[in-house]
Amino acid sequence: MSDVWGRVDDYIVDKLVNEDEALAGALSANSAAGLRPIDVSAAQGKFLHLLVRMSGAKRILEIGTLGAYSTIWMAKALPAGGKVVTLEYDPHHAEVARGNIERAGLSGTIEVRVGAAADTLPVLAAEKPAPFDFVFIDADKPSNTIYLDWAIKLGRPGTVIVLDNVVRDGEVANAASTDPNVRGSRGAFELIANNPRLSATALQTVGGKGYDGFAVMILD
How far apart, in whole angstroms, are the C-alpha atoms of residue 131 and residue 151? Predict the structure, then answer.
């Protein structure tokens, strides 16, 4: 089935996505710099772009930059004066991301902060920024609950939060799993289910990236 998923992904991208030179160049630069090919797919990037537009977001928080492929997709959906703050653990990844952002002409829109997000998020909060309208979480999965807690603190009623890679090849439904990534996904589901401020669902996805899924929620 994975071959079918890949072919359909290619068809969707060809017909609907219209990945531009800056986005394609970011993927090429990421590969040349030795980054793992774990960016969102082009179709998923366009989906994030559309969610940002639909929500009317002006301020975005991204946790997990990698080479800024998803960052650029979201930044391109912002109105004039919009802002993305993106957090990246690895200094090499951040350097590659900044190059991609500069080539995309988005250095004035996107701010990359380097360090473990569990450390940089409290620093960001201490600056008392305006609430974020949209939060995309795509970092180390065992820390999902930490990142969700901060997304809630840094958001406002109406903030949209997207948490990526929650299905884990279906293993999220396996209560006996000892995989830290699966445990991180299950912990996130428990947090979301037990927080009355979050209205959420999760969708399974298939495609060139395999079988996974994401949770999407709104902060009440």
Answer: 10
User: Is the separation of the CB atoms in 160 and 51 below 8 Å?
Assistant: yes
Residues 6+ apart with CB under 8 A from 32: none
Residue 1 confidence (pLDDT): 66
Task: Please tell us whether the domain made up of 2-219 is placed in CATH 3.10.20.70.
Answer: no
Distances (CA, A) of 164 to 6, 40, 80, 205, 211: 19, 9, 27, 11, 12
User: 173-201, pLDDT tens digit by residue?
Assistant: 999 999 999 999 999 999 999 999 999 99
Helix (H) or strand (E) holding 97: helix 91-103
Label residue 183 exposed, middle or buried (CB < 10 Å: 0-12, 13-18, 19+).
middle
Cβ atoms 175, 187 nearer than 8 A: no
Burial 167-178 (b: 16+ CB within 10 A, else e): bbeebbeeeeee
Token readout for 39 is: 């960016």
Q: What confidence category does residue 211 fall into, taking pLDDT thresholds of 50, 70 and 90?
A: very high
Q: How far apart are CA 35 and CA 27, in angstroms?
A: 9
pTM above 0.90, yes or no: yes
> CA-to-CA distance for 181 and 62, rounded, in angstroms?
19
The fraction of the chain above a pLDDT of 70, given in percent, is 100
The tens digit of pLDDT for each residue in 6-46 reads 999 999 999 999 899 999 999 999 999 999 999 999 999 99
